[in-house]
Amino acid sequence: MVKESNKSYVQRTLQDLIDSSKEAVAILINDIKTPLDPDLSDEKRRNAIKAKKECFIDAQEILIGISKLETQITEGDFKEEKDFEKGLAEKFAKR
How far is the C-alpha of 76 from the C-alpha of 38, rounded, in Å? Predict the structure, then answer.
């Protein structure tokens, strides 16, 4: 667990990250909402559509991240998540 003085810093920093992420999502949503120019060539139109799709996917990923960060703040759980713990062989392997 994190020390109490560090805990408030972590909470403030996570909240700043959440606020910044919400601004980024708003920018992405505005990009998605912007209508395509009907005079674009087929190639440019296709690229613009792909860009909108990327904005959509990025916004979704950021929203998932925001949700995880908000959960961390409310639960006070600031532990690092690890995908892989050392196995028996790794513990005894020479470095």
Answer: 50
